Amino acid sequence: MTPPDHSTNSFMSEFTQLHSIKNQNNSIRSPFSLSSTHLNQYNLISKNFTSPTNIFPLIYEKQVILECLYTKDSIAYGTIRVHNLNYNKNVFVRLTYNEWKTFNNIQAYYLTSYSNNNTDVFIFEINLAKFNNNDDKTKLKRILFAICLQTMGKEFWDNNQQSNYVLDVILKDDRYITK
């Protein structure tokens, strides 16, 4: 899905440009790593996400919303739209691969502002190469995540109406990893 204001090519072009700039200094560090040969066997898939059609009432009510989620191979890219309540803000993705026993935060990066509706857009990347259960590589079946906006001493969450957003980890031949 693409944000209402962007085509897929525009979104990916902007994301790639910003990511290449940020990637050098802000790489995500995680205690989990997949070997490149193991990583090539899996894809990330989001079956249940659909971009909201009329996002502005939701943004003004919730202050933060996952606007777009796009998966390609073992990487998920997303856009987050936030109500511009204050110039100083922190936007991140909180995710887990083990049902919230542990979690990691991935920083989202500012992309653009829309003054006509007082919203900002942030982008993020979830890369499967950053996650792995070192005991058994096949245990990584799905990644749950939620979006957070921190501003003015408050936190606002989008957790898919308390269901979490889900990225399934599947074998490249489209067979789900058995539980």
From TrEMBL:
GO molecular function list: glycogen binding; protein phosphatase 1 binding
Record-annotated CBM21 domain positions: 56-168
InterPro entries to which the protein is assigned, alphabetical: CBM21_dom, CBM21_dom_sf, PP1_regulatory_subunit_3
Origin: domain of life: Eukaryota
Pfam families associated with the record: CBM_21 (PF03370)
Gene Ontology cellular component list: protein phosphatase type 1 complex
GO BP field: regulation of glycogen biosynthetic process
Full protein name: CBM21 domain-containing protein
